[in-house]
Structures are given as structure tokens and as C-alpha cells.
Fold this protein.
Amino acid sequence: MPIRKFSLIAPLALLPALFGCHAAAPSGPPPLPPEALKAVVERPGTGREALARAVDALFTDPAAGETRAVIVMHKGRIVAERYAPGYHENTRFISWSMAKSVTGVMIGMLVSDGRLKLDESAPVAEWQRPGDPRGEITLRQLLQMRSGLKHMEAGDPVYRSDEVRMLFLDGRNDMARYAEDQPLEFEPGAKFVYSSNTSVILADLAARVLAPAQDPDSRRRAVAEYLRTRLFEPAGMRSMVPEFDAAGTLIGGSMIHGSARDWARFGEFLRNKGSAGGVQMVPRQWVDFMTRPSPRESQYGAQIWLNRKPTQGEASLFPERGPADLFAAEGHVGQFVLVAPSRELVVVRLGMTPEDRLHPLVSLLGNVVGLYQP
């Protein structure tokens, strides 16, 4: 009798364990939310579900911070486009430092026009006074962030930063004057120092050669019209709105506003070596120059970041697993226009991620790029 009783109870006792094993069985990845798959076209040039998951992670993974817009372009067409609630295809997003790459293109056009010289002394009148060592600074050195001018990009406390002082404090009314008044700290050309102020100097040089008069309104109109007619409209970037300071200088290091689609068009313009709609708007050699490593920092070109192992500091992108020809316009708190010519790819991410949490975001962007092969 005891044996029979045990034989009935034993199978019942095993039921929780059996159910437990069933519950622990792998179930595969969770289903995609409807908006994730809807954001990707039927044939995106890679696995549709894989791309939808990689884009979805940019919106749902806490490590990404707050993503507001993502666009993936492959072979010149949008294959994925998604926005966070409250944002859409007509929203203008601030560039932050992505503006530097626009400024770099504008300078290339002026060099092509013969208005500026790459290897001559930068035409800042105050630097041309006899005995001023800043007269040795060339346009090339400014573009490659190796002017030698004293600069602190990020300070602690924040108001010590030359960038902050130029944009928001004592330099805000005449940003170029603030930037150009700085003394030399290093020999021109000798050291890479990332500097938003340098990009404002470049924007000032554009105004000096374009404006018929040097009053603020003339400077603002001349540069805005040049950008509109030579870059924005021919490239289809009709949403772009550049900002100027009180002296009429383009805030060329940080403040150009545009839709996510227009930032993607800018990336496509660079992927096509400075052409759009079959029109070569800046010499192909200029884009080659912008995307060639600076002599003092291998992961930086001329107003643009490169997917290379850094000469100093940490990698800005993902050189250990991404294509060597990839480059990017990057902006404060996680703005990216990634361009991978060998993959025929442009990836735009706009949003807000604290600077000390950018590495996980960059890794997630690397996952998107990694879905495409040459």
C-alpha cells in the first residue's frame, strides 16, 4: 500500500519542475512593436527585421538616452525613418557641432571660388600687425583644429570654458572677436585642440570676403544667401536655418537648424563627394581633404570626425569594428550624421544623450552600420 501511494504522488510532485523547465525554455527575441517594423521599408538592403530592431534599440534602450529622430539612407533612398512622439519630418533640430561640417563645406566653396587661400595666412586683420605671431596661422590649420590659439572647450566649472564664454557670456555679442583675440598657446600647426571657437573664426573669414560692407546686416545677409544658393537649395536642404550673432557672424561651430531629412541630405551630399542632383557643388578633392586625417589627430579631418584610432584621447566613433572610410558630422549630446561611402550608407541620429554616456549610443549606431556590408 505505501508503495502504491508513492507511485501516485511522485508524478504529481514532478509537475512544478516540469512546468518550470517549460517556462525557462528560450522563447526567442521579443516581438517588435508595430512602429518599429513600420519605420523600415520592405527591402532596405539588409534584413528588414534586423534593421527595425537596431533602429528600435536607439529609441528603447536606456543606454541611448533620448532619441528623437533616426534616418537610414542606403544607395540614396530612405530605408528607415522614425521619430519620437512630438517630433516629425518637419521638425527642425539644432545642429550643435554638426554645423562645423557645414562651415567646412562653405570654406571649401570659397577656396574653390578663389576668395580664400588654404595655405596662406588667415586674413584676420588683427593678426597681420607686425610682430604678431598669429599671422602664421593658415586656413588649413584652422580647418584641422591646430591653430595654436589658447582654448578650453569644456571647463569645470562650466563658465570657464572658452566655448561657453564665447556663446553665452562675455563673447556672445561678437563671437569672432572673442575667438580671434586669444593669444597663441602652441606653435601654429603643432597641436590638435578641438575648438568650437575656431569654427566661428572660419565663419568670420567667410563674412569678411562675402559682405560688401562689414555692418552686421550685410554680413548676415551675404553669408545666409551664399549658403542658401550654393549649398542648401541645390542639395534640397530647404529647411535649414543658420543662426548669427549680433555682429552678423554665422555661429558656424554650433547653431544651424534643419530637419532630420535635410541632415540626411547633407550626409548624402558628402557621400557623393560634394555633388547633388548631378551638380558638383564643391570640388571632389575638397571632400577628400575634409575626410583625410589631420597631421596632428588621426580621427579628425577638416571640420569632420573620422572612424580612425585616435592619436590622443578616446575614439569618437567605432574604429575597431566599422569601415575605415566612415566619417561623421557630430554634435553636442548625441547628434550624428554618419557617412559610410563603402556601404553606400548615411545614418542620422538626433536627440539628447549626456556627454558622459555617448559610448553606448555610439555602439548602438555601430550596430546599424554593421548590418550593411560592401
